[in-house]
Amino acid sequence: MSIVSSTGLGSGIDIQTLVTQLATAETQPQLNSIQRHRDTASTRLSGLGTLKSALSEFQTAISALKDGSAFRAHTAVSSNESILKVAADSYAAAGVYSLEVTKLAKAQKAVANVEFANTSSTLSTGTVSFSANSGATFNVVLDNTNNTLEKLRDAINKADGNTFVNASIVRVDNAANTGTVAKLVLTAKNTGTASAFTVAGVDDGAITGDVSLSQLASSNLDIKTAAQDSEILIDGQKATRSGNVISDVLPGVTLNLVAQTAVNEPVTIDIAVDNEAITKSINTFVSAYNKLNSTVKSLGKYGGSKDGSGNGALIGDSTLRYIATQVRQVSTGTVSTVSSDYNSLAMIGVSVNKDGVVSLDSARLKTALSANFQSVSDVFSSTEGVATKLASNLSVLLQSGGSIDSQQSSLNKAISRLDDQKDNVNVRFERVQKALQKQFLAMDSAVGQFKNTGSFLTSWINQL
Question: Which segment of 18-22, 107-111, 116-120 scores lowest on mean pLDDT?
Fold first, then answer.
C-alpha cells in the first residue's frame, strides 16, 4: 500500500522506507522458507518429467523388439525391375523364386462407332444399360433434359451403381477425313476380365435425336483394348489375377508387374531377412538405453557440496534406484526361455560395461543372426526376453497412478499449497504495513505538534 507522505513532516523520518523494511523483516523469513520448499518441489517435478520422457523414449525403442516385428523385416530383390518390381513385409518368408510374366492385365477400352457433329448433338430419349462380367449393372435414363452427348457422358460418370466404367469424349477426324467429329469413349475402371462390360441402348419410341440409342450398343463399339487378366508363372506354377499388382501369390510379398518377360527368360526374386534393419533396431535400443542410463545418473548424482548445489534433481529417490537396478539386471541376465548358447545380450554382441554404458558389436551380432536367428529374436521377444521384461517394468512405472505419476501429483499439490501460503503471507504483509503506517503517521503528527509548541515557547521566551 502506498504511504501518504514519504518523509514525515513532523519527524523528518522516511516513513515509507521504514514501514516497508519493518513489514518485510516480519514476513520475509517465512516467504524465503516457502520459496525454498517450492524450488525443491519444482526441481523434483522437473526431474520426474525428464525421467518420464526418457523412459517413454526407451519404451518406444524396445516396442519393435518386444513384439518381434523387428525380426520379421525382409528385403525383396528383383533381378530385372523393368519387368518386375517386388516388395516384402513382415509376413514374408525367405526364399528364392523364378517368375515369368506371360500376360499383363488390361482394362477394356471401347469407342462408339457413331460420329457426333459436336458435344451438343442430341440422342433419342430412352435407356442405356451397362453390365460388367462381375455382375454389376447400372442404367442411364435420357430425357429431353439430358439427351446430348456431353450430358450423356456426365450422366454415365455420375450414375448410381457405376463402379466399373468411365466415359469421356474425344474430338477426331471423321471417317471421310473431311472434318472433325466427337466420339464417346468408354473405359473400364479396373483391369481384368471381370471388369469387361457390355452396353445396350433402348429408345423410348420414335427416334427424335440425331442418334439412336441402339447405335451405342456393344455391337457398334470398336474395342480398342480387350479386357485381360494378368498371368504369371511362379516356379512353373500358373497364377491368374485381375490386376498387375499382386499380393496374394507369395504371402507378405507384393509383385508389381511392369512388362512381359521374354520366352525362357524368367525374373529371379530373392526374399531374405533384412539383417541391416534388425541391426538398426538393436542400435536404436542401445542408444535409448544409454540415454536412459545417462539421464538416471544425472538425476541421481551427488554434487559434493554441503548446501546441495550440484546435486541431481532426484538424488536419493527410491524409484530412480529401482529403475537403474532393474534395467541393468534384466539387460545383463540370461534369458531362461532361450535354450541355445545365444541366450543373453552379451552373447549376441550387446555388452554393458562397468559404467552401465551399452555397446553393440555388429560383427558378433551378424554371426549370431547367421548361426541361430530364432535365438537372437527370442533373447528380446520371448516371454522372458529382455525387451518383454523391460516393457513390462516400464508399463508399471509409466501407468496412470504409478510411482512416477503419484509423485508428480503429490508435488503439484504441494506446490499449489505453497503458493496459497505465499499469498497468505503477502496478505499479512499488507496488514502489517497498514498498521505500522498508521502508528508512524500518528507519531509524526505528535512530533509535529511538540515541535510547534516548542517553537512557540522558544519565541515567547526570546521576547521576554
Answer: 18-22
pLDDT in tens, 115-138: 999 999 999 999 999 999 999 999
- pTM confidence score: 0.70
Rounded Cα distance, 169 and 156, in Å: 12
Q: In sequence order, which residues have a C-beta less than 8 Å from that of residue 455 and are 6 or more positions away? A: none
Spatial contact of 111 and 196, defined as CB atoms under 8 Å apart? no
CA nearest to 56, candidates 300, 288, 287: 288
344-381 in b/e form (b: 16+ CB < 10 A) is bbbbbbbbbeeebebebeeeebbebbeebbebbbbbbb
Q: What does each C-alpha distance from 201 to 100, 153, 204 come to in angstroms?
A: 42, 14, 10
Reading the block at residue 253, the C-alpha cell is 510379398
| Secondary structure element (H or E) that encloses residue 102, with its range | strand 95-103
Helix, strand counts (H, E) of the chain? 8, 17
* Amino acid (one-letter) located at 389: K
Side chain identity at residue 192, one-letter code: G
Tell me which residue of 398, 339, 346 sits closest to 58, measured CA to CA. Answer: 398
- Phi, psi of 238, deg, nearest 5: -80, 140
Is the pLDDT reported for residue 2 higher than 60? Answer: no
Q: At a CB cut-off of 8 Å and minimum separation 6, what does 442 contact? A: none
